[in-house]
Design a protein that fits this description.
By secondary structure, the protein is α/β, with parallel strands linked by helices. About 25% of the residues lie in helices and about 25% in strands. It is built from 10 helices and 27 strands. The strands form 7 sheets. An 8-stranded parallel β-barrel has the order 2-5-8-9-10-11-12-13, surrounded by 5 helices. The chain has a 6-stranded antiparallel beta sheet with strand order 16-20-21-27-23-24, covered by helices on one side. A 5-stranded mixed beta sheet has the order 17-1-22-26-25, with no helix packed on it. Helix 5 links the parallel strand 9 and strand 10. The longest helix has 16 residues. The two termini are about 25 Å apart. The structure holds alpha-L-arabinofuranose. Alpha-L-arabinofuranose binds next to loops.
């Protein structure tokens, strides 16, 4: 009953590597402590940026990093974050706990981070409380090569050459924290801001409009109708949350909460379908990318931590959910050009948690690492028949899977078993090329809430997987309960 066919020479389009993007906001301990410790810190750092975090993120082939927010972006004034650090103003971070933002991590520090990570910056400009001139000046400061006052100010602050910026957000959640605007009003604001967000010495600025959240299809319709011609991307935010007013613990949950949270995550598929269908009406050639620049799980904060810091633990449940969501993005690779899990470090569904000089990798980190071979690979047509995972009166497919082929002709097949109780047996048929060798890795644990802690940092980590056998074009897999598996065939 559980079976799949993969057309190994097929081509269902490229899986844009930017689907594996990340997001770091000035929120809680994401930037400060998570990334920035300052040059004088005893934690090993390069120009103030943690070396351990950079090494871990480089291992994911992190393609892009969104900054400085989130809600913070529409209350951020870039001039606060340039020049000598001890002269930078101290501001109140009004969105995230009214803590003091000393602006020690600003434009130059962020661009240094991106260079250390070898990833593309994705900067979100301020529409909610900023001005058109402020946003266009930021671009000139960063990207103009000539002899202008702003470009010379950048030089005075230590950066001779302009930076190359491609991804440029024009506001964040402008229906909410970014100004509480109506779609019709924001569409006009967007048109004006986008006009002045110029290509100075950037070859191709990719302007991303602040998009809808969840099922706000009206927002998508208005933005596409009024402003599609001036955008390259439209953002979408969708979080997997049990209940907004009572999100529940990240670590203490029963099977009903395991089931419901995964169910919430799988809703990403119909949401993408619906937004894509609206976009198709105005942009049938799919020029405008749907940029899912905030997604992931949102639980209650860890007991005893500042509620405004959104610090949550991360278990096998988050990992399986991440795998299944990434598969959904693959399936929408014609429209979804980028996605950014929220957030990289110490906030929401993080890759990394830090405590002083200690750092741990979360189960979600390991999924991103196991899946990294899909980045920029060719998606292969995959037809899957899966048994249901049922709970009470409700059901969802137990298996989620995706396959791609890289430039060397290797095939990566990733699978998740969403059922926490039973292994599933699967037969695969590989149509096309001949494969003689296979390696496998698995991420699982003995409990639904298996996790890594500072005392036991390696409880959940990939292990080699011997539950698959390859005989000619036939693949047999026994996928253990609550697991994520990656198979590489050559
Ligand atoms: O990721 C946390 C917050 O969630 C972001 O700042 C905001 O854009 C969203 O509501």
């Amino acid at each position: 009953m559980n079976c799949f066919t993969i057309h190994t020479e097929g081509d269902a389009g490229t899986i844009n590597r930017h689907i594996y993007g990340h997001f770091a906001e000035h929120l809680g301990h994401c930037i400060y402590e998570g990334i920035w410790v300052g040059e004088d810190s005893s934690i090993p750092n390069t120009r103030g940026i943690r070396n351990d975090v950079v090494a871990a993120l480089r291992n994911l082939n992190i393609p892009n990093l969104r900054w400085p927010g989130g809600c913070f972006a529409d209350d951020y004034h870039w001039r606060d974050g340039i020049g000598p650090r001890d002269e930078r103003p101290r501001r109140v971070n009004t969105h995230w706990g009214n803590v003091i933002e000393n602006n020690h991590f600003g434009t130059h520090e962020f661009m240094d981070l991106c260079e250390q990570l070898d990833c593309e910056p994705y900067i979100c400009g301020n529409v909610g409380s900023g001005t058109v001139q402020e946003i266009r000046d930021w671009l000139e400061y960063m990207t103009f090569a000539g002899d202008s006052t702003l470009a010379n100010e950048r030089r005075k602050n230590g950066r001779e050459e302009p930076w190359n910026i491609t991804y440029w957000g024009i506001g964040n959640e402008n229906w909410g924290c970014g100004g509480n605007m109506r779609a019709e009003y924001y569409a006009d604001e967007y048109r004006q801001y986008a006009t002045y967000c110029r290509n100075f010495d950037n070859p191709n600025l990719y302007r991303i409009a602040g998009g809808p959240h969840d099922t706000d299809y009206h927002w998508t319709d208005v933005l596409m109708r009024e402003a599609a011609a001036r955008m390259q991307g439209l953002s979408l935010h969708y979080y997997s949350i049990l209940k907004w007013e009572n999100k529940g613990s990240a670590t203490q949950f029963d099977e009903s909460k395991w089931f419901t949270l995964l169910q919430r995550a799988l809703v990403m598929d119909p949401i993408l379908k619906q937004h894509s269908a609206i976009m198709d009406r105005y942009d049938p050639d799919k020029r405008v990318g749907l940029i899912v620049d905030e997604w992931g799980t949102w639980h209650d904060v860890e007991p005893g931590t500042n509620p405004a810091f959104l610090y949550q633990q991360n278990t096998l449940r988050d990992a399986v959910l991440a795998g299944a969501t990434l598969h959904i993005f693959h399936n929408h690779n014609d429209r979804v050009h980028m996605a950014n899990i929220a957030q990289t470090i110490n906030v929401l569904q993080a890759m990394i948690l830090t405590e002083g000089e200690k750092m741990i990798l979360t189960p979600t980190y390991h999924v991103f690492e196991m899946f990294k071979g899909h980045q920029n690979a060719t998606r292969l047509p995959l037809v899957l028949q899966s048994e249901d995972y049922t709970f009470g009166d409700e059901a969802m497919p137990a298996i989620s899977a995706s396959a791609s082929r890289n430039d060397q002709g290797e095939i990566l097949i990733t699978l998740c078993n969403l059922n926490p109780n039973h292994a599933v047996e699967l037969s695969g048929n590989l149509q096309g090329g001949e494969f003689t060798s296979m390696t496998g890795r698995i991420l699982t644990g003995d409990a639904m809430n298996a996790r890594n802690t500072f005392d036991a940092p390696e409880t959940v980590k990939p292990a080699s997987f011997d539950g698959a056998t390859l005989a000619g074009s036939d693949l047999k897999i026994v996928l253990p309960a609550k697991s994520v598996v990656a198979l590489t065939l050559s």
